[in-house]
Each structure stands twice: as C-alpha cells, then as structure tokens.
Amino acid sequence: MRSRTVPFLVSVTLALTMAAATQVQAAESGPVPQVTPAPQDIRRSGPDIVVGSQVEVVATAATDPAALSLLDSVLRQQGVRSVNVRANASGSTPLTIHLGPADRPDIASALGRTLVPQHPEGSAIAVTSRHGSLVGTVALGGTDPAGQYYAVQTLRQLFVGSPYRRHIAGVTISDYPAMPLRGTIEGFYGSPWTHQERLDQLAFYGDVKANTYIYAPKDDPYHRDRWRDPYPQAKLAELDQLVDVAASHHVRFTYAISPGTSICYSSQSDRAALTRKLQAMYDLGVRAFSIPLDDISYTRWNCTADQTTYGSPGRAAAARAQVSLLNDVQRNFLATHPGSYPLQMVPTEYGDLTDTAYKQVIRTTLDPAVLVMWTGTDVIPPSITVAQARSASQLFGRNVFVWDNYPVNDYAQAAGRLLLAPYDHREAGLSDHLAGIVANPMNQAAASKVAIFTMADFMWNDRAYNRDVSWTQAAKYLSAANPDALLLFFDLNHLAPTFGPQPWQPQAPALRALVDSFWAGDPRLRAYVQRMTQAPTAIRASVSDKAFLSDASNWLDATELWAGAMNSGLNTLDAIAAGDRAAAAQARRRMDTQASAAGKIRSVPGENRVEGVVQIGDGVIDVFLDRVRAKHDEFSGQIPLTNLSQGKQATQISDYAPEYTAARSVDGNLSDFSTTSGAEVQPWWQVDLGAVANIETIRVYNRVDCCAERVRNYYVLASPTPFPATLSQALTTPGVVSHLETAQAERPTTINLPASARYVRVWLTTSTPQELNMAEVQVFGRSGDT
C-alpha cells in the first residue's frame, strides 16, 4: 500500500495553485454532483452517461484489487446486474470503464486532455459520452494503487438520476490529497472500541479517503501499562485481521506502543522487550509504528540507571533519554525492516508553542525522519492557524503531524455529550506546513463518523473546505433519505468544549438563532420544534447504520423529551396569550414533567471514562424553558423564580487552596469548583443569600473532574438564621429545613426544598475526614416574596 510515483504518458503537472474544487453547471446535464472530499479540480465535460444493466470493466494485472472489488460493489449497488471484467475492451456493452494506472495506454487514451496529477494517491477521471448519452467510456486512472481506489470512491458519488434510470455525470476530475497523512488515532481514555467497531471504522475511512489509523487506546493494557508483555493469541488474531482489512481499504494501520510510564531508557532489556513487541507487529504485516510519550512525567526517572546515564530529571534530560530510544528504533529497527515507514512519536510537550530545553534537544538531535505529533496550542485548541503550525514546525525542526483532540469526549467537560459539530476553526493552508492530521475520536465509534467525515474533507483539500457543505454531506452519508432530521440532531449536539469555560464551538446555533428571533416576534420556532419532536423517529427509520443508532440512542430519547418540553412551553405561552389560566397551568406542568424526565437520561455506563446526564441543546433549551416559567409565574401573579445564590457571599469550613475557594461554586461557571481541605469530618459549604427569601429548589452540580470523589451522602439545609456549629445541632434547630441526599450529586442534582431562608448549606455526613467539592450550587427562589 506504500505510495509510489508512476511515470505518465500524459506528463502534465497540475498547477500548484489548483486548490479549490470547481463545481461547474452545464445546461444540458444539470449541476456537477457534490463530491466529498472536495476534489482539487472537477468540471463538466459533457452529457451524463446512461447506466444500463451491463457494464464492461477493463482491468489488468496492474489494476489494484481493492479498487476493482470496490468498483464491482458500487456498480451492483447502482443496479448493474452484469459486470464483465476483461483485459481489453470488446465494445460489447454501452458502458466501458477502464480502471488501473493512469499511464496504461487505454486509460491514457480515454483520459484524453484530462490532467493527471504527479502526486502520490492522485487520480484522473474522464466520463465521455458518445451517441448522445447512450454509449460512453469512464476512465479511472491512478498514480498508484491508492489513487485507483480513490478514483472509484469518487465515481461512487457521480451517479445521478432516479433509482430506475441512473446516470454517471459527464465530468473530468484531477485530484490528489493536500496532506500526506489523514485519519484517526484511537488515543482516548476509557472503554476502547470493540473489534467490530474498528472493522467498521476502517471501511468508513476508505469511503472518505482517509489513509491512516493509529492504534493507541489508552486503556489497552498491552499498549501502555503492560507494554513489555506479548499479546495473547486471540488479541494477535484480531490485530492481524485489522491489518489486512485496513490494507484492503488503503488505510495504513499504525501500531502505537506507549512505554513512557515505566520504561528504563538506558536498559538494554527494556529496549529488547520493545523490539520484540514491534517485531511481533511487523510479522503481522504492520509497517507503520508510533511511540507516544505523552501524559508522562519528566520530573522523575523510572530507574536509577537513567539518572546516571542522562542526568537529573528535567526537560533536557528527559528529551535526551527519549531521543536515544527513538533514534535507536528508527535507525536500528525500522531502517532494517523493508517497507517500514518513518517512526512517529508524541512528545511529552505536545500542546504549546513555548521553546524549552526539551524541544531544543528534540529539534537538534532527533533523527530527521521521525514524525513529531502536536495537538495545537493546547490539548484542545480553539483554533489552529497557519502561523501556529509554522511556529510548531520550527520548534520541532520538521513539519509537525497534528493530533487533533476532536471529537474525543473522554474528559469531564464533555461528560454526557456527543460531539457532532463539523470541523472548524482550522485555517486553510495548513497543508503547506503539516505532515498530516489525525482526529482523536469519541468512545462512541459510529457517532464519531460525523466529525471524522468533515475532518477527512478538510485534510484532503483544506483550501476548498466548507464546513456547512461538508456537514450536510455527512448527514447524507448516514441518511440519503432524511439528512435534514440528522442535521437538526447534529445542531442539538454542536457544542465542542475545551478544558476551560469557553467552548470552541457553541451549542445549538440554529436553534439558538430561532429562539432569539422568537422572542422578537418570529413565529418559525413552532415549526422547528415540531421537526425536533419528529426527528428521533425519522432518524431511526432512515439511518441504516445500526451502530450509529445505538451510539445515539440515549441522545435521541432525550431529544424527544426536550422537544416535547419546548412544545409544551410554547403551548403555555399560547394559553397565557389567550388568558386561559387552566390551560397555561396544565401545559406548564406537562413541560416540567417532560424536562424532568429528559434530565434523568444518562450516558451509557462504562462507555466513557466520565459519565453524566445526557446533554441536548443545553444553554438554549433550558434557558428557553426558564423564561417560559418566569412568564407563567408572572401571569399567575407570582414573582418569577431566579437563581438567588449566584455572586452571593459563600464560605466553607476550610480551603484546599486559594484557587478553590467557596466562591467558585456561585460564580456561574460550571468548569471550576470549590474544595475544602479534606482534613475535617463532616465538612460544609454555604451561601448567604443576603436576605430571607422563599426557596423552592436547589441544584447541586458535581465538580468537573473525571477522578474526583463524588459528593454523596449529604444534607442540604436552609435556615433564616446562621447555622450552629455541628450538623446534629442544625438538624434539631427550629426553622431549619433539611433534605438528606444519599445518591451522588449529578450535574445537576435537583432538590425540592421549600423554605423561607437566608442561608443554604451543603453538609457531608461522613465519619472520616473528606473533601467537599462542587462546581456550582444554584438556589432558586422568589427574593421579593417572603
């Protein structure tokens, strides 16, 4: 599968400026079909060709077997009953397809003046009609076997017309990838993909012309913690099949091994163990290898011998040790194993642009052939610009290979989320400065296809990339029958968080715009909410990818309930407008019931490292419902419920550190938290509302952290006067209202606590010292009604 340059009879070089795909319309045959990834050049050349029941395919020994097999499958899916493969054209069928190297004489002749790119994985396609559109020739020429395969993947998207009268669009295409390496790295924490999920992904990568899959699941013990140990035979058999299936889709299976948590760099026995592991993979057919050294410490050694060899722990010493190992693998293993690709590595400093002693050693001493991965300016960067990529390449002394942590959802801010927004905020022109990009997907493999589809489009032709067009094409890939329902669902799962409070993609932008317009008098929200209500059923009926439906199941259930709550909210407003108190109250109760049920749906236990309540349109739907509640309260003669705690004075029994003070739990930011010292039995946190108010509900949000001790077995107390010193005294004090919560605090746990109070306290019931930490405590009440 290794790319090779082929001499051409048609020796034409594509202009370097040929960057944007040209979608040209022709009056006689309609618009050129939308092809994804966007080709470097596509243009109308003549009428479409009718596809009949028989097709002749001209293929020789130089034709890529995977491309030929794919072509047969594509033709049969389009209704062709007889596919006749011959070494020479016979002219016995109206449609003849020539498949193979672009310089094969019959293909070169059929391509005519079509430009053939002199580029690895390149292809040229010419669809030529004769006698109107009833007779025709299709030339599919590749610069190498991968180019042939990708030419067929393009042809798959050129079929137009009704199911009963199919045509191939009359076009010429010259195409090649802008980036050499394009694909994914299974590098997340949490439950690894299953074997069947990986097989399905590899076939999908072929469809979107991605050529790289890096096997690096953090929770595979033989990849990281037990890297010295050989794989069991059953696992080896699975890996063997993955390597073969990847090759059949022109995907480079890259095996990653991550020894940094325990390796003794100076130990010859450890290096021998690493070599044995690599050799076992090479024997399976693996030719691409990666050694990630991310998420490890360079402030300590794993053995005393390394201090003698490389010096005291630190940036420069760590880099010297790593370079010694990496150069050894590159020069003494890969260079001596035929067909091997250059080694890939992930540096310990992978997410910034700061020049350090570590990077200086890497830059000046790491073998130039080794590819260095970089995540951008942060672990999850809000954007990646050409200038940043240029700086990163200078820092590491080579074009970097971007590990983009999207759409991965293995961290706390992504708890309960599917990340379905299209790829965005990555600048056109990055292909000039990168060795490639790999996406780090979600634990939900099939649901990751949405983002990966758009990312593959960008990787192939970053200068022609259009996020909205690509997103729509992703929806059509999953459901040609009903892409609009999927796009609506994608919008409700659009938020892409970072490790900070500000996401790099906003939640539900389409719904948010309609809600904002609704409050200004635009009536279109009602129809959109009806579509939201119907979308889950439509998606389940039209999407054939059962794995995607399984991944999305809980989110589809939540969508149906939240849409129902919005519809009931609109009914509440209609009843208010009509002055119908009974109907408004009934619709309000239905809205609250549906919202409560939606808020109880959780992500699948065990799938993600961080679990939580399923998030759908949050920050938009819940805000809309709160505004409906306020309007109904006003209509009913009540003061609207508000969050009385935000920004008020908060205290706790002790502080763990200055950055985790009690005030962090009333600052409106769900990404930070308060923490007590952990030295006290029954620690407490409280807020002073400033005045006695009528409290109705309290929401406790757990700390945003995958590994924190969850708040559980705690009292929530409300009092008009300051609390006494101990929990037992507080529980017997007149006027104090309390609620005991034995389950862990969710995000959020909503507690009904009707009380007339000024002080609200969360008090753990533990009998041993323990931290108390929470992201936020919201106290909802009516401040003017006491």
Explain the overall architecture:
With 786 residues, the protein is an alpha/beta fold. It has 4 domains: 25-175, Chitobiase, domain 2 (2-Layer Sandwich), CATH 3.30.379; 181-471, Glycosidases (TIM Barrel), CATH 3.20.20.80; 509-635, Hyaluronidase post-catalytic domain-like (Methane Monooxygenase Hydroxylase, Chain G, domain 1), CATH 1.20.58; 642-782, Galactose-binding domain-like (Jelly Rolls), CATH 2.60.120. It has an 8-stranded parallel β-barrel. Strands 21, 22, 23, 24, 25, 26, 27 and 28 form an 8-stranded antiparallel sheet that branches. It has a 7-stranded mixed sheet with strand order 3-12-8-9-7-5-6, sandwiched between helices. Residues 1-28 have low confidence and may be disordered. Belongs to the glycosyl hydrolase 84 family. Residues 1-26 form the signal peptide. Residues 180-463 form the GH84 domain.
Detail the topology: elements first, then pairings.
Blueprint: E1 25-26, E2 30-31, E3 41-44, E4 49-50, E5 54-58, H1 65-77, E6 82-86, E7 95-101, H2 105-111, E8 123-130, E9 135-142, H3 145-155, E10 159-162, E11 165-168, E12 171-175, E13 181-186, H4 195-207, E14 212-215, H5 233-248, E15 252-256, H6 268-284, E16 288-292, H7 304-310, H8 315-332, E17 344-346, H9 357-365, E18 371-374, H10 386-396, E19 400-407, E20 434-440, H11 449-460, H12 467-478, H13 483-492, H14 509-519, H15 525-542, H16 546-578, H17 581-598, H18 621-635, E21 642-643, E22 649-652, E23 674-675, E24 684-702, E25 714-719, H19 727-731, E26 737-741, E27 749-764, E28 773-782
Parallel strand pairs: 5-6, 5-7, 7-9, 13-14, 13-20, 14-15, 15-16, 16-17, 17-18, 18-19, 19-20
Antiparallel strand pairs: 1-2, 3-12, 4-11, 8-9, 8-12, 10-11, 21-28, 22-24, 23-28, 24-27, 24-28, 25-26, 25-27
